Amino acid sequence: MRGLALPRPGYAAVSRWFLGLGLAALLLADLHVTSLDPYADLMRLLGGLVRPDVLAVEGTSILYTVAFAVLGVGLGAGAGFLLAIPFARSRTVRIACAFLRAVHELFWALLLMQVFGLSATTGILAIALPYAGICAKVYAEIIEEADLAALRALPPGTGAVSAFAYARLPEVAEALRAYTLYRFECGMRSTLVLGFIGLPTMGFYLESAFRQGRYGEAGALLLAFYALIGTRRLWVRARTLPLLALGAVLALPATVGTTAIGANLARFLGHDIVPAPVRGASLLVPESWAALWAWLRPILWTQILPGAAQTLVLAQVALVATALGALVLFPLTARHFAGPLARPFGRLLLVTLRSTPEYMLAYVALQLLGPSMLPAILALSIHNAGIVGYLLGRHADALRYRPDAPRGLDLYAYETVPRLYGQFLAYLLYRWEIILRESAIFGILGVATLGFYVDAAIAELRLDVAAVLILATALLAIAVDTLSRALRRSLRIADLPVRLSAAPPATPAA
Fold first, then answer.
1. Residue 14: enclosing H or E segment and its boundaries?
2. Name one GO cellular component term (predicted).
3. What is the distance of C-alpha 458 from the center of its chain?
């Protein structure tokens, strides 16, 4: 007898597991509201949105936001395309790309500042490095999924480069273009967030406005950012890309941060991130390893393990809240549920939610509610529910119902959700790793996740400790991503689309 095969978990079992873990994590989460009058602060914020102080907006911050995004995403997408070609055949490339995308842009920026200072180079590379890993993986998937019929029509002896350029690239060009445009939207959000650590993007002025109670200026900056995202399809086109790239280079801030880049890089790699006990010591003697373990052990027990636990708690609660929010929100954009007047407003709401960076949402919620895990949970669930709800609405519009299908709540509960549930789980499992990455960086705002300890280590110039903590964050994200892919394969939903560019095309409002 060959042994008994374990039964595959079904949709219901996986849903119960995640819901149970989410409820258990909720009991461990810090959800206290410490603000004296959050309602009054919220009214002041809404007042700033209603009466924005447009004249107070620093125009150069908008230029820098666009410039960093154009150059960072362009560099990352270009490197990602080159890495995508050997991605399927090289384990080394796959591991390198997994590490690049597992480290959040803010962590990359905090490390790069030690070499390049508070400069445009830091902002561009902080976007380009993780986006290279992300684009390599997605581009490789798009290339592997392409129709191979054109390859079979090539004459014998055609070289690999020619075969790729003339047979495969034309088949995938449109999918690559669509995903790159979506990644540029993500790059705009990431670039704004980099302003919260001092780079001169819109986020820098937004944080200053919130700190000083200038809600009219904050409202104007938010509206300007939404306008940039909302009009992206009008000014980011194939024929405008050369002008955008040239304009981005010319619009970069004049400050260079530091001119001693070579010396800084040598010091950073050869000294700063090397664990203190083994700097200049030989690793061939047992005493060095004993000193290294004595140094690492308290970091592991007092920072990595509690930080990882809090990161997982935050991510699990946010994932379950995202699921519930998406199920509530997606009918607002589906033509079978929202009327011709309500549907455009529903789409506008969900596009706004998905366009608002989680870090910025958490920062705003922190001003309203005070320091706790609650602002981070709200930010993650609102943003990701907007994304998943928007995508599910597009899938719901692509469904075909029988003529005698029920209406209203029965259509939602008995026809639509059951047919979309596999796709719904695919989106959630894909967003799981992304939510975890964001949960880690919320430590910079004071939540006791891994980012809290990273920020403290960098503030104290203990870059060797910060490097170990960032490595632990990356390994945790890689582990969750691996588990997510395993669950998608087990549920037989690994081939369902999880990218915005792969979702069904949006249908016109009914």
1. helix 11-28
2. plasma membrane
3. 22
